[in-house]
Amino acid sequence: MESALTIGIAQIAPVWLNREETAKKMLAYISDAANEGCRLVVFGEALLPGYPFWVELTNGALFNSPVQKELYAYYSRQAVSLSSGDLDSFCKQAKEKKIMIILGFIERAEDRGGHSLYCSLANIDADGSIGYIHRKVMPTYEERLVWAIGDGHGLQVSKLGAFTVGALNCWENWMPLIRSSLYAQGEDLHIALWPGSTRNTEDITRFIAQESRSFVVSVSGILRKQDIGADLPSSALISGNSEPWLGNGGSCIAGPDGKWVVAPLGNEEKLIITTIDQARVMEERQNFDPSGHYSRPDIAQLSITRERQRLVKFTDKD
């Protein structure tokens, strides 16, 4: 089996809070990545249709705020509905281009009533099927004013050539037990999705790589003040309180020795392409394997519940 893998990291801005236009832009980058020989392309956290940067700029914690209510309703209408086929175009392109896609999106989850939003990521296999959907297990700080708490159902991995690929959203990557759940499934290519900041990626990427002896890809979005559309609710308020860069990227790759393969890239929209080799993982696992020869399951074990959470279980009579 070929041990090398070419990957594309799409560090791009969304057409902020516009699902259809953002999807078109992402599909174009997928096509570009495939044409460059990539077998995997990855996108940042919540890129489709965008991260809720407005919360900290509009007094988001004010209870019963008409501004927050209007923005939440707008965001909900732009969120992804799986049952409505909002990811179908990505599945089609994955199959046509024979490329795996990992993307961050906002999910309007029908299995939880259809009115709450989840920060989700999708792993779309190269055959066009959705391998799994992962809902962020714990939104961070002000994100909890917008996103619901996810579950463990998506703590899964997938095979891509010689690699075993897993992914987490943003500060989930700081959760040791959640990381360990992927390590134990043989993960050796870890994808960390971020909304966009070099301060988020410059330390943890190398740390996870050295801890897991895996390749770690941090993929970030970007957002500039100029990307805030004038037609959005409270656009003037959001823009008036914004710095020139709300998210400046920071996408990067660390090797299984913890050293940079691609150093963090800031303040630029770019498709980053590189080739990595799984043989390097095997070399670094020689002296440390966190779920293999350097683990002690007789002393410490981890229990993970991967059931999709549902409020009601109906038992219907025929």
SSE order and pairing:
Elements: E1 4-11, H1 19-35, E2 40-43, H2 66-78, H3 88-97, E3 100-108, E4 117-124, E5 130-135, E6 158-160, E7 163-169, H4 176-183, E8 189-194, H5 198-201, H6 204-212, E9 215-220, E10 222-224, H7 235-240, E11 245-254, E12 260-266, E13 270-277, H8 279-284
Parallel strand pairs: 1-2, 2-3, 7-8, 8-9
Antiparallel strand pairs: 1-13, 3-4, 4-5, 6-7, 9-11, 10-11, 11-12
Active site: 45 (proton acceptor)
InterPro entries: C-N_Hydrolase (IPR003010), C-N_Hydrolase_sf (IPR036526), Nitrilase/CN_hydratase_CS (IPR000132), Nitrilases_CHs (IPR044149)
Enzyme class: hydrolase
What would you say this structure looks like, in words?
With 318 residues, this protein is α/β, with parallel strands linked by helices. It has a single domain (4-284), classed as Nitrilase/N-carbamoyl-D-aminoacid amidohydrolase (4-Layer Sandwich), CATH 3.60.110. Helix content is 23%, strand content 27%. It has eight helices and 13 strands. Strands 6, 7, 8, 9, 10, 11 and 12 form a seven-stranded mixed sheet that branches. Strands 5-4-3-2-1-13 form a six-stranded mixed sheet. β6 and β7 form a beta hairpin. α1 (19-35) packs parallel to α3 (88-97). The longest helix has 17 residues, at 19-35.
Please supply descriptive tags for the structure shown above.
318 residues, alpha/beta, Nitrilase/N-carbamoyl-D-aminoacid amidohydrolase, 7-stranded mixed sheet, 6-stranded mixed sheet, globular
